[in-house]
Amino acid sequence: MRVDIVHPYNLPQVWHLVKPFIDKPLEYNNGEILSTDLLEGLMGDSFILLVGHDDEGIQGAIVAEFLIHPQKKNLFILSWGMKNWEGYDKWSDLFEQALIGLALDNGCHYMSAWCRKGLAKKMVTLHGWEHSHSIVTKHVHPKGGD
């Protein structure tokens, strides 16, 4: 079991394998970002792809980006998908270590993620993340829109 960074030059060989992991959590966003957008960012070296794998194949994938604010730098998780969320507990320590290492190696002050309640609860309970706020949304339609 290990978590590795996939470099842009390796994406053509693995994208078809990781895309289902990336697409799954994007089903819950509001259409702001698609896996094709993430692939473009990964190919352009704007985003980072972490893949958890073992003898049985890929078990999970994370796409993250560095957000640079005037005073602090953030490692922001854009998408985190697992083959089987029941297996999250088994993989969470490895992903957590990889994320922390990536953040520290790149001068980040903190990490953040928008996620569903179930993942948020696990991140808080298992790894000491802080639940600082929740995001709620309401769709509105412009005049003349659908």
Please describe the structure with a list of short key phrases separated by commas or semicolons.
146 residues, alpha+beta, Aminopeptidase, 5-stranded mixed sheet, 5 strands, 27% strand, globular
Layout of SSEs?
Blueprint: E1 2-6, H1 11-26, H2 35-43, E2 47-54, E3 57-68, E4 73-82, H3 88-105, E5 110-113, H4 117-127
Helix pairs in contact: 1-2, 3-4
Summarize the structure.
The protein is of the alpha+beta class. The chain has helices at 11-26, 35-43, 88-105, 117-127, and strands at residues 2-6, 47-54, 57-68, 73-82, 110-113. It has one domain: Gcn5-related N-acetyltransferase (GNAT) (Aminopeptidase), CATH 3.40.630.
- Within the largest sheet, what's the order of strands? 1-2-3-4-5
Any low-confidence stretches, pLDDT <50, length ≥5?
Answer: none
Number of helices: 4
Helix content range: 25-40%
> Structural class of the helices, strands and pairings?
alpha+beta
Beta-strand portion reads 25-35%
Number of strands: 5
Level-1 CATH class name: Alpha Beta
User: What is the CATH T-level topology?
Assistant: Aminopeptidase
Radius of gyration: 16 Å
The biggest beta sheet is recorded as: 5 strands, mixed
Task: Describe the fold and architecture.
The chain has 146 residues and is α+β, with helices and mostly antiparallel strands. It has one domain: Gcn5-related N-acetyltransferase (GNAT) (Aminopeptidase, 3-Layer(aba) Sandwich). Helix content is 37%, strand content 27%. The chain contains 4 helices and 5 strands; from the N terminus they run E-H-H-E-E-E-H-E-H. Strands 1-2-3-4-5 form a 5-stranded mixed sheet, with helices on both faces. Strand 2 and strand 3 form a beta hairpin. Helix 1 packs antiparallel against helix 2 and helix 3 packs across helix 4. The longest helix is centred in the middle third of the chain and has 18 residues. It starts with a strand and ends in a 19-residue tail after the last helix.
